[in-house]
Specification:
Number of strands: 5
Strand content: over 45%
Strand order of the largest sheet: 4-3-2-1-5
Structural class: mainly beta
Shape: globular
Number of helices: 0
Distance between the termini: 12 Å
Length: 65
């Protein structure tokens, strides 16, 4: 389970395939639930310290550090 403020390792993937394009460390800023009809997906906003930006990622693209 993730919480805002957690230090995470993030993975940026190429499109819908599971090949890593980039990775690094960041801080979890926000956790959002997005609904698509009856389906729900959790999206995580991560601050990437090396790039000094934020990125929106799915749960399979982050892990606790």
């Amino acid at each position: 389970m993730f919480f805002v403020g957690d230090l995470v390792k993030w993975y940026e993937l190429y499109g819908d395939i599971h090949i890593t394009r980039d990775a690094g460390l960041g801080v979890l800023l926000e956790i959002m639930d997005v609904c698509y009809g009856s389906d729900k997906q959790t999206i995580y906003k991560v601050y990437r310290s090396e790039k000094q930006d934020t990125i929106m990622l799915e749960e399979h693209c982050i892990e606790k550090f």
